[in-house]
């Protein structure tokens, strides 16, 4: 009877340890990048920056530059 509980405990521990090895790879980051579409094409939804029009590279570049200026420590320290 002891052997059965010991065997069961070892099998349960081994199964728990080996279950971490079967984790699927995370490919969500790869799915978000589409090499066939330019970044400024974008999506027409409610999460866009105001003043940016999908497909307009000039307004996309302006919005990116404005965003980068807001994240610059040098310009925030002035």
- Strand share of the residues? under 5%
Mean pLDDT: 76
**Tally of helical segments:** 4
- pLDDT < 50 stretches: none
Query: What is the helix fraction of residues, given as a range?
Result: 55-70%
Q: Given the C-alpha coordinates, what overall shape results? A: elongated
Secondary structure: number of strands: 0
The end-to-end distance, rounded to whole angstroms, is 76 Å
Structural class: mainly alpha
Task: Please give the largest β-sheet.
Answer: none
Radius of gyration: 26 Å
Helix-strand string: HHHH
Helix-strand layout with pairing:
Layout (H helix, E strand, L loop, with lengths): L1 H18 L8 H5 L24 H15 L1 H5 L1
Q: How would you describe this structure in keywords?
A:
mainly alpha, single chain, 78 residues
Describe this structure as you would to a colleague:
This protein has helices spanning 2-19, 28-32, 57-71, 73-77. With 78 residues, the protein is mainly α. The model has no long low-confidence stretch (mean pLDDT 76).
The gist of it:
The protein is mainly α and 78 residues long. It is 55% helix and 0% strand.
């Amino acid at each position: 009877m002891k052997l059965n509980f010991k065997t069961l405990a070892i099998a349960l521990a081994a199964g728990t340890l080996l279950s971490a090895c079967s984790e699927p790879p995370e490919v969500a980051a790869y799915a978000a990048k589409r090499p066939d579409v330019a970044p400024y094409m974008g999506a027409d939804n409610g999460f866009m920056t105001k003043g940016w029009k999908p497909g307009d590279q000039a307004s996309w570049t302006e919005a990116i530059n404005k965003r980068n200026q807001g994240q610059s420590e040098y310009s925030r320290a002035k």
